[in-house]
């Protein structure tokens, strides 16, 4: 039965995959919705997964695909503020809220790449394979995403100079 197979495959990576989905979204609730929608899609397509050892990579690809489809469908969402609070001048009590607000300003491809590399600990080549792009494209997304995050922290939150994190192989 496919439901039992999905349950067995998702169990060891459930928390990490859920955290990944939440990091891609503007709010925790949106992340939970993204994760649930991805699991439904995964269950529907599970028969196409031939090698159970490839499940983690396959599921993350499903999450990314669902996320991109949601972003395309909801053009208006770019005009909606983050939650009920205004970001500029807001005194965030937790770093998670600040990070989520900053990540929400990134285009989906940059946000996915930053989350996979910085939070999930994926390697450049793994991200490149997931997104179907070159390692150079992944590095460019990381650099551009970090620049946008730095700008967000400096301008919107009034935080001073933020030291950039370098991608292995990049020069300072």
Largest sheet: none
Radius of gyration using CA atoms only: 17 Å
Shape: globular
Pick out the low-confidence regions.
75-93, 164-172
Instruction: Determine the number of helices (DSSP H or I, runs of at least 4 residues).
Output: 8
**Care to count the β-strands?**
0
Topology as a string of helices (H) and strands (E): HHHHHHHH
| Percentage of β-strand residues | under 5%
Distance between the termini: 52 Å
CATH names the topology of the largest domain as: Rna Polymerase Sigma Factor, Chain: A
| Overall tally of structural domains | 2
The CATH level-2 architecture of the largest domain is identified as Orthogonal Bundle
Q: Briefly note the structural class of the backbone.
A: mainly alpha
Helix % is 55-70%
Q: Which features characterize this protein?
A:
Rna Polymerase Sigma Factor, Chain: A; 172 residues; Arc Repressor Mutant, subunit A
């Amino acid at each position: 039965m496919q439901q039992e197979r999905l349950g067995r495959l998702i169990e060891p990576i459930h928390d990490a995959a859920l955290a990944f989905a939440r990091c891609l979204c503007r709010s925790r609730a949106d992340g939970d919705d993204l994760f649930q929608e991805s699991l439904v899609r995964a269950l529907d397509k599970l028969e196409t997964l031939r090698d159970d050892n490839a499940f983690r990579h396959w599921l993350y690809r499903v999450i990314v695909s669902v996320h991109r489809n949601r972003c395309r469908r909801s053009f208006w969402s770019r005009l909606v503020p983050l939650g009920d609070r205004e970001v500029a001048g807001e005194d965030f009590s937790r770093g998670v809220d600040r990070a989520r607000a900053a990540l929400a300003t990134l285009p989906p491809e940059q946000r996915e790449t930053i989350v996979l590399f910085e939070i999930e600990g994926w390697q450049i080549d793994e991200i490149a394979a997931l997104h179907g792009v070159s390692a150079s494209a992944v590095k460019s997304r990381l650099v551009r995403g970090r620049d946008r995050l730095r700008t967000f922290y400096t301008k919107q939150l009034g935080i001073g100079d933020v030291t950039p994190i370098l991608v292995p192989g990049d020069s300072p």
